[in-house]
Design the sequence.
């Protein structure tokens, strides 16, 4: 029985957890590895956080320039409750899959008067890397990321290594759901 | 079907993961808004206005058209736009367009979206039109509304002629260059076609109540 068929039967017959599929390919597939336990990120100094202001095209350029195998752009705001509910899972996934070429780009849609809150939240979550702040026309920003996005937050956009948007969604997603969306793109090797 | 077994496996793993993920319900598809030309959905649905009375969108219809604004109390975008929205709504009434603002958010998610706060907000803003609670969120669902604020303007015949944002700058009214809604209202009030019929803006997601 081929490796492919073995995997198919496994999926259809049992729908066992994803972790069981790790060995089905017959070759190392780190993207399918079970979630690694990574320590929670330590808070960072708020003063160290600076925002790079981006409109839609600049953001897409940042995705292309980032060199990641898979990039997830997450548009959030400090006041946005579902964004905050989802945020720790995005940070966790970013850390767990970083060595496989996965990267999360957080783009704040906060207004200027809320930037201190946005910085504090990023610091609290241990996000010390480049932080982005949306600027410019909303319509252009939305349509550049995905014309089917309504503009409701949070919005998430998944890009492959060639910088092609392969999936997007609005509203929060759980850790398991996020992981299930990212892993196939990582595994595709584009 | 698949060029490579690995790609096939990845696709199947993804499908399986979606099938078994307990989180799928959290990632429901985004609402699809009604199309231009559509009649007012759930026009007769009962809404609770801030004056304590029951009303409906149908009861707020104007001779020249009807403006429905999905908004709320808590969303920072709604707050940024609320003064402009109140003025635009008040002016629209003078031009024969009926106006109703609707809060479809579940106040269990944020107490600031409660009825008493709606009453205070309508008074503070001097709203001369209804600000009503959608107690099931079903009206928002019927419109396919997804965020606050999000506006739907219907012409005199009851057909949707504009859907989207209030204008192009939530943060600063002085920097608005495209007053989308005001332009659409002027067109409707004067019997002309709306030049820019669909726009978008960032906004807070509507906090839908659980479906009964």
Sequence:
């Amino acid at each position: 029985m081929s490796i492919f068929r073995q995997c198919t039967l496994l999926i259809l017959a049992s729908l066992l957890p994803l972790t069981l599929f790790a060995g089905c390919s017959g070759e190392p597939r780190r993207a399918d590895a079970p979630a690694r336990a990574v320590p929670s990120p330590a808070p960072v100094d708020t003063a160290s956080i600076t925002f790079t202001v981006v409109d839609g095209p600049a953001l897409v350029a940042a995705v292309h320039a980032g060199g990641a195998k898979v990039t997830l752009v997450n548009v959030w705001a400090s006041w946005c409750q579902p964004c905050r509910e989802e945020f720790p899972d995005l940070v966790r996934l970013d850390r767990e899959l970083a060595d496989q070429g996965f990267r999360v780009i957080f783009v704040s849609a906060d207004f200027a008067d809320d930037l201190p809150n946005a910085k504090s939240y990023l610091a609290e979550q241990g996000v010390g890397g480049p932080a982005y702040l949306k600027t410019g026309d909303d319509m252009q920003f939305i349509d550049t990321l995905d014309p089917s996005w309504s503009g409701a937050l949070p919005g998430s956009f998944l890009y492959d290594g060639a910088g092609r948007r392969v999936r997007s969604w609005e509203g929060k997603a759980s850790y398991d759901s996020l992981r299930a969306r990212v892993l196939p793109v990582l595994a595709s090797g584009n | 079907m698949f060029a490579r077994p690995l790609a096939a496996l990845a696709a199947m793993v993804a499908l399986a993961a979606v099938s078994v993920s307990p989180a799928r319900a959290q990632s429901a598809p985004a609402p699809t808004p009604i199309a231009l030309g559509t009649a007012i959905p759930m026009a007769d649905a009962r809404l609770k206005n801030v004056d304590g009375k029951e009303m409906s969108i149908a009861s707020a219809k104007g001779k020249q058209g009807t403006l429905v604004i999905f908004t709320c109390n808590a969303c920072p975008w709604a707050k940024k736009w609320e003064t402009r929205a109140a003025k635009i709504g008040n002016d629209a009434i003078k031009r024969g367009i009926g106006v109703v603002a609707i809060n479809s958010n579940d106040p269990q998610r944020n107490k600031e979206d409660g009825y008493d706060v709606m009453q205070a907000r309508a008074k503070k803003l001097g709203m001369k039109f209804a600000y009503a609670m959608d107690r099931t969120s079903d009206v928002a669902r019927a419109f396919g509304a997804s965020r606050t604020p999000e506006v739907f303007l219907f012409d005199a015949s009851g057909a949707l002629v504009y859907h989207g944002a209030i204008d192009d700058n939530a943060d600063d009214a002085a920097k608005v260059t495209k007053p989308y809604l005001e332009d659409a209202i002027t067109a409707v009030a004067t019997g002309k076609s709306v030049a820019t019929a669909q726009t978008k803006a960032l906004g807070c997601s509507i906090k839908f109540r659980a479906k009964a």
Summary: The two ends of chain B are 41 Å apart (CA to CA). Helices of chain B lie at 5-20, 76-94, 115-125, 138-143, 180-189. The longest strand of chain B covers residues 97-103.
